[in-house]
Structure formats: structure tokens, C-alpha cells
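Please check these two lines:
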Amino acid sequence: MGRKPPPSPAARAGRLLLLVLLGGLVATSASVFLVYTFSSRVSSFAVEHEANAPSTTPASSDAPPAPAHTPVDDGFTLHPEDHVYREPKTIYLDWNITKEQRAPDGVVKSLYLINGQFPGPLVEARSGDELIVNVHNSVHDADADAGEGVAVHWHGLTMNGANDMDGVVALTQCAIPAAANLTYRFRIDDSQSGTYWYHAHSGVQRADGLFGGLVVHKPANAENAVAERATYSYDAEQLLLVGDWYHRSAVDVLEWFEAPDHYMYEPAPDSMLINGRGSYNCSMAVKAWPVNCSAVARPETVLQARRVRLRVVNTGVSAGITLSLSEGSMQVITVDGGHAVANDTHAAQSIGVLYPGERMDVVVQQAPSTTATARPEHGARLIVTLDKENMNLHNFALTPEQEFPLSWASSPPKQASRHEKGLAVSELNLKDLQGAPLASSPAGLAKPAETAVLYSAMTIRGANHNRPVATVNHTSWVVSEPHKPPLLALDRAQWVDAIKQPTTAQKLKVPWIKETGKERWMELVLNNYDDKGHPFHLHGYNFYVVRSQTAAMGLNRGYNPFDKEQADAVAADVNTKTPLRKDTVYVPSMGFVVLRFALDNDGLWLLHCHVLWHQAVGMGIVLQVGDVDEGAKRRAGQRCLA
């Protein structure tokens, strides 16, 4: 037979096209098969590990569409859309705490990391979620403070029904020793949402970086989250952790503060950090304390929308702060754990003073003139001003005003929004804030059944080798034995010998409020007999601040509610209509505050100053509310023996 003639070029091209198409079809089929197989395996893995977790299907048909922009994952931009439309669930976290060399502002320092991060990982949840956090202490024995162990406190969460999970060494738990772990397990109360944070409550480790952000989103429905976002018309949420920073180890700084020849002057910070970053001028380092320093640029804060809900936490150790914008404005909407302020609160360019431990949520409005790509030499700035209180010793490397570049990811508006027109003022003093009007004032708020009076002071005691001693009602909370059983694990009769006092003239005192209940309210009066103010934090509770009194120059304005003349004068001027609700309150120098709250959370709760140096020398007291839960007592003891 004769050989067939070769195919024409057109025929060859057709066959080649057919082969390419067939090859593509086979490859596509194989890819689909592999994707299906992999997806099935991933789904099986997820089902196996999340079998007991509630569905995350949106609980509301009002769920918004997915955002058009790419979600930002910088560790500080929040994702409420992942939480507000789902049912409560259990969130599992596994944390490994180490101590390593880092240079957050250009100066090398040994600081605490959680899973390699500083600040620690951002925790986002919603009301009603259960958190299970396994904390492993991998701090090496070679570290100077490794013997202290570690512990984590959940600042602002009431820990109702979980007193033993509050994270306070010597009170609710033993410190977690090196190479050991502890699992914190607790449920966030349905009534709690807002800006919180977690931090060390062991030694002075908070000053060495053991802290992070915790945001509890309010579930969305017609009454709360949706209405809140619509009311203030913000388009994004971000976290701002801002505070002072020391280059020396916290143990060394505390030793300096306690030295007899330093006369209780608080050590001046070396730097300021925003979300764990700062910039130090290496040429200003003091020769007596040489540092390993490299020049770094000032960190820039990039806001993700024209109107951003900025959740601000003062994570600092000593200094109160005021935040200011060179362009734009801020409006406070909540304080501490999401407690609303009055709707007519003015927007301002400058807001303060925010003391250590306090939080505020502000809506930041971009100014029409701001350029989206503005640089610091001609653009917007975020200015952090350190309050002069606790700053009597000057550090010339740290000017009172610290400026950080600020920019917006969005293009600027052409004109001022309806939220900004005619509303902004230059400054807003946080002490002048009013709370949102109470729809119905609880009877106990006006007439509390219980009254307690506390007196705080700081002195230099000869009996303590001329070192500073802080007291509340002549008792000091100083932890010297972090691995011994905590008070929660002991009988009340054993408490007096469990916490050593700075002098033999003192005894540990634990006031006991025996009668409790949701309808039984208490008035707590905090008198400050010190020439400096103190931001006090109460664990286990939030409270209404119905009166705050600043002393006149040189005068003490203490308040004894059992003195009828004083009580009548104060009663005429308490605010039970629009009081602020908080968990951390500033008590003015030589002044007092009056707090009221329902006694609805039995347990042992610490009340202490959040200036870490004051807390470390004893400014704290334990309150026993109701009876100690036997289950919590047993668990606290068992964990200490483990």
C-alpha cells in the first residue's frame, strides 16, 4: 500500500489544538479530584476537632455582606464580623511564654513573648464565649526572675463563677513555675462586652512586656451592636495599646524605686510604645546605664477607614497619657469595659488623662484636608503627652510630648461629615465625662445597704529600712512567696500568716462583706491620703462612680460616710442619674471617690493601684465578698500541688 500523504499544516494545527484541549481536560479533572480529596480531608479534620463547637452560621439575617476591601491582619485591626453574628462558642488558645532579647524601640531588652509575639496575641471573642487558654511557662531558669513563675490576669472581666481563674498570684493561684503549665478556663458573662486586656499578675513582669489585647464584641441585634455602629457611623475597628516603657529590667527598676535614697520618687520611663513599637534617640542614653541601641523610625499608625473605632488601652506602668491629633477629631463613646458615655459628649482633638489600666473607645474622624498618603514631615500626627504626675524625675531622652506619624488607608472626605460639623472642641478632660443616662436607676444605687471605707497611703518607714511602704487600711499586699498556696486555697484563719507584711506593726486584713445578692448594693469609699493620685482597679466587679472629689491645694478632702454632717453634704451631690461605669478609677491626690455596685459576685477579689511601682510595695487589699466557693478553693489547692 502506498504511504499516506502528510497532513496539511491546517490539519496538524487542528490535531495539536485537540491534544492541548484533551491534556487540559485531564489536568483539570486531576486538579479537581485532588482539591476535592484535600478539602474532604481538611473538612474531616475540622469536624473531628470542632465536633462540639457551636455552628458559626450567622445568627441574624441582617448580617452585612463581606467587606469589599481585603481584611487587614496586622494583629491590631479587629474583625467584629467574625464574632457578632455567630452563636457563643468555645475558643481554644495555646500560649507558650518565653523571655528573649528584642528591641521594640531600638534598644535591646530581655522581654516576655507569648508564642514569639510582643505584645501578646490579640484575643477577639463575643459575649457568652468560653475561653480555654493553656499557658506554658518556658522562661529559662537562667533568667533573673524565672523563680517568680508567671500568671495571667484578665483585666476587666468579672470572672463570675471562676474566681480561681482570675490569675492573681498568692490570692487565686500559685505562680506557674518554669517548664509547667496551667489551663485557664472561664466563660465571658453575657452582660460583658468592650475593650479589655490581659497582663501578668506575678511580680512586676507587666513592665517587661507580659500583656496583650482582649476585645469582647457585643452580639449583633436590633438593640445593641448594629444600633451602636449605626449611631456612631464607624467603618472599622482597631486596637491601640499605648504605654510607657523602661529599658532596664523591671526588677532592677523596682529595686531603684525601693532604695532609701530615692525617697519614693517614681523612676521616669525611658520611652513610649504604641502597639509594641517605639523610637529611641540613641544619643540621649545615660552613660551610667549604657544600652545596646540602633536607630529606628517612629512607628506609623495607619487607620483603615475615614471613621474608625479606636480601642485605646493604657498598658503603661506609671504614666497617665493624653492622646491628641494634629488633624481630625476623636469622640469618646465608651470607657473601660464598653460602658457608654453620654451621647452628647463632644468630639475633641485632645483627650486625657487616661491612667494605667484604663481604657477608652474613641471614634476617630479623618479631617477633610488629610492626605491619605501623608508622611510625617507634612502629614498628620498622633501625639501622646505624658501626665506630669509620677514624673517628678525627668528623663531628658523622653520629652513630655511624643509624636508618631498617622495616616489613613482611605482617601479623605471632600467635606466634614455630619458627625463632625460644629461638634469638635480642642480638649476633653476624661474626669468630666458623664455616663449614659440610666433608663431605670436600681434602688440599691440610690440607697446601698452596705458601706465600707478604705484609706490608702504611701510612706517611708524606718521599720522597713527607710524603704517605701504602701498601705490600704494599714495592710499591705506584697507577694514574697509566689509558689505557696494562695489565700483562696486556705481557711480564713490561716490568711493572717500567709502574706508577710513589710513591718511587724502590720497585719494582713481582709474585709468580709457577708451578705450578698443582686439586689444588695454596696457603697465603697476610697480615700487617698497620698500626695499623688492612684488609679485603682477592682477585680471581679465594675462599679458606678457617683462622686469624685479633688482636694483644694494643700488640703485633705477625706470622707467618712459615718460622720452624719459629711454624709449629708456628700449625699446632696452624688450622681445616680448619669454616673460613669468603670472597673478602674483614678482617686485624686488627697481626695476621694464614692463607688456603688451590686454584691453579685462572691469570691476573693483584689483592689489595687495600677501604677506598678505602687502596687509592688503594697498598695492593694483583698475583699472577701460572700462565701468562698468550695470548688474554687479545692481547685486552687490542687493546682499548687501539681
About this structure: The longest strand covers residues 90-102. Residues 9-49 form the longest helix (41 residues). Residues 47 and 450 are 51 Å apart (CA to CA). The domain at 443-641 is CATH 2.60.40.420 (Immunoglobulin-like).
